[in-house]
Amino acid sequence: xKPSNKKSWRYKLHEIIYEADTPMGKLFDVxxxxxxxxxxxxxxxxxxxxxxxxxxxxxxxxxxxITIFFTIEYIARIITVKKPRAxxxxxxxxxxxxxxxxxxxxxxxxxxxxxxxxxxLRLLRxxxxxxxxxxxxxxxxxxxxxxxxxxxxxxxxFAVLIISIxxxxxxxxxxxxxxxxxxxxxxxxxxIVTLTTVGFGDIAPITPLGQFLAALIMIMGYGIIAVPTGIxxxxxxxxxxxxxxxxxxxxxxxTQACRNCGSPKHRDDANFCHKCGEDLHPDENPLV
Amino acid sequence: xKPSNKKSWRYKLHEIIYEADTPMGKLFDVxxxxxxxxxxxxxxxxxxxxxxxxxxxxxxxxxxxITIFFTIEYIARIITVKKPRAxxxxxxxxxxxxxxxxxxxxxxxxxxxxxxxxxxLRLLRxxxxxxxxxxxxxxxxxxxxxxxxxxxxxxxxFAVLIISIxxxxxxxxxxxxxxxxxxxxxxxxxxIVTLTTVGFGDIAPITPLGQFLAALIMIMGYGIIAVPTGIxxxxxxxxxxxxxxxxxxxxxxxTQACRNCGSPKHRDDANFCHKCGEDLHPDENPLV
Amino acid sequence: xKPSNKKSWRYKLHEIIYEADTPMGKLFDVxxxxxxxxxxxxxxxxxxxxxxxxxxxxxxxxxxxITIFFTIEYIARIITVKKPRAxxxxxxxxxxxxxxxxxxxxxxxxxxxxxxxxxxLRLLRxxxxxxxxxxxxxxxxxxxxxxxxxxxxxxxxFAVLIISIxxxxxxxxxxxxxxxxxxxxxxxxxxIVTLTTVGFGDIAPITPLGQFLAALIMIMGYGIIAVPTGIxxxxxxxxxxxxxxxxxxxxxxxTQACRNCGSPKHRDDANFCHKCGEDLHPDENPLV
Amino acid sequence: xKPSNKKSWRYKLHEIIYEADTPMGKLFDVxxxxxxxxxxxxxxxxxxxxxxxxxxxxxxxxxxxITIFFTIEYIARIITVKKPRAxxxxxxxxxxxxxxxxxxxxxxxxxxxxxxxxxxLRLLRxxxxxxxxxxxxxxxxxxxxxxxxxxxxxxxxFAVLIISIxxxxxxxxxxxxxxxxxxxxxxxxxxIVTLTTVGFGDIAPITPLGQFLAALIMIMGYGIIAVPTGIxxxxxxxxxxxxxxxxxxxxxxxTQACRNCGSPKHRDDANFCHKCGEDLHPDENPLV
Lengths: 288, 288, 288, 288
Hints:
4 copies of one chain form a homotetramer.
Chain A lengths: L8 H10 L4 H25 L1 H32 L3 H5 L2 H8 L3 H7 L3 H12 L8 H4 L2 H11 L1 H26 L8 H12 L12 H17 L1 H21 L42
């Protein structure tokens, strides 16, 4: 655990890329965020035919510039982390890779059929935007509340699915193919559409019995929507209560990430990584 | 209450089929779950015309294999339980029977008209999937919260129904048959569709007065959706609170089922069935 | 306050009609409930053309029988109550009158044009069903929770209305008449349909800007649906808390009604009417 | 801080216009509220073609009368406030100006093209209605609960947006242009429509894979609607709790506004403006 007193360029770069506590780190994050949003907007614009025909060249150049920036950023992330493999195979490492590679792949693999498949990969770049949640402290609380009630919500959603299968099957038998209930899977799909109160209306019952069953399904959906709400409400109140007891750092709001293993979510007053023991603030260490 | 010291094959089979505490019991439940899901998927696929025409033979064979497995399982359940009648006339006993019998019935009763009715019975097999909830501990909590607020939810749903009847009648008088409000029942159906915020759009008001009343109904529906949610939320918080006080076994999470009467929901530390007094763990009993 | 020791027939009839504590009273309420439901179903069936043509005579006779029963019941209610005027001009008194009179009116006033207006009055008979809530104890709790949060819900609904007017006006300017936004009122109607997540789809934006604004409205609606729910949830929890403190009779579950003024909602242990001082149980009174 | 002992006409007018504690002030507010509502209704009626053609002259006159009243009111507000600039550039000052000016502008700027743009400005007058919330005490509590959970709701809505972008992109790739998914932005719009359970049905998936993904999106939307509800519910309960502790003036229910700087939300027992120190009740001041 010997801290390097002199800040190396790799250490400085790590500070900039992985943390948002310094002015340079903040600037980097804001620029990155802007570029991710821009790349998402570009992919969107490209999908609109009128826009693609008119600005094809401009969109193409812009995407290459962003891809090159993302490539540099990806390499920099690998260089500055002490254990690159931990980063590469982490959730964000894989997303970073998948959001950089598609444009390069589209150059090697030529052919109209293949290009379409590559495009699908390119669209995965939108996942990059998920990074934003890293920087927003409040999201941790939400994620915690959701995680705590995960099991309950899953059981609940499973119950919804069973009801949909049973009711969907009955609707298929009652309505028949005249009103759009052409098969049980389509009927189950309609049932989910109805139970969740979405109600597209592309498929709708026309027989009195079908409308009666549909009314029952709706009222049921209206009644059971209360269940997950009640669960999350209770769990969130609990989380809020715990936070009041344990203080503000119960949920982690800093952007600190270990230089060695890259693991986040350190306490605000942490000096060493809780995973690998790496010194988090080498130059501030009073013992050295 | 003389426990049989030597484990008989019936005792072993009971352990496997009715409980999920042993490795064999767990395997059995997983395989059963998989087969139930498969049978549901098969019924679904059969309802899609294109698939049924192409793979009719394969689907037929698969259904027979699953039906035979279900038959063996059903017989095994009856043999291993000490009081078979209690099982046969229990909720799951009836579902097990109804999900096994339709294919056999379709052999005896021939005729295009009758076959359709038998098909309806066959589709009841989807109820089998309900068994899954047996194995998920969390579901008990949900069921408890729902049961506790059952009376309130029923009153609430009844209020929704009354509002729908009154508003539906008014809409029928205002809109007339031009915009789809052909009779009061259809009008009430539309009202439920609107009040539950489903909104198919197959029937929609076109007169200014009708649209005004529809807007009132929607805002009302939007406002009263809060009521069941508030109820379940409060009840669930109470259940959660009780659980913290009474400990984890307040809600039953084990899969223990009595060998004698088949009643579930024993406490984790129970030695004897709370219904018939049968010894739950005969070979572990220190008194013997 | 001199109690009549000998039970008169008027006293006995009052017991049967207004209270549900005696076997005869219970029977009367169940029969009445059944007849109200039947009359609602009859009005519904009459509105379906096919049914009306086929069973016109039967429906007509049935309605006359029910109307005569309702007439007798209405007269009996007036006779048995000590202060008939208080009953006649009470909420239920007016509903009872309005649900009895239409059929008699349809005999006096003849003419196709007038008959239609009379029909509208006849349909008010569905209000009779509202009586049911009198007999269900749980409904009082719900009504209390709703009353306590009435002011907040009204302010909230008013906010929804303002948002709808502003957003509706903007949508009218953006979308124009091509996609169904023919006037501001229709546009506001669409906005309420969208904000309450009903979404009929008879009117839907087609311009990119209109779809963008629609998306904003939906997300807003999705976000603010939480407000009334939170309010009712908090209020209901408070009501539930109070009930635990004050005991079960905090919310009134008995069906007692004063013989003199007809006011309900007496405490379970009440001996005298809290409004007029009339003795509630004259023959049980130990002082006499 | 020298209070003017003698009530000047400006002081009296200030009392009437800015406060609702005196009978005259209440009357003024009610009349103003009525006129604002009337002007909103007039703008609405004008947008209906049939009405505009028939009553064009009447609507025109009515709007001029209201505009003149609003102009007088606007000037009176500027005169009676000690620091007019603070009022003019405040939120309500700008809304007051924007809801008065359009009719005058439509006289100077002539031309069919320009008139349409001016109309857009005129419609901003509906913002005037927002004033109503000033006078309703309950609204402050709601606004407070919403403000407290603003950060959480924003993070949540952001999460909804990310899910919509990802799912929308996938739906565009799966469904193609046949079923209305013509571009990624339209696809994202559809996804928001579905996730918020609005479900117009103008765009709906037709491929099995698209319907499966749509079902997933709906169930997800059904599950996550619980999150903001839970948040607001918990926050509101907290606000309710605080209010019980701090007393009724924790949320501000009086209509007092400073004569000097116009800032509202003074405590009920406040003697001096909490912003500029101006005496709030000069003639009641015991020190003078």
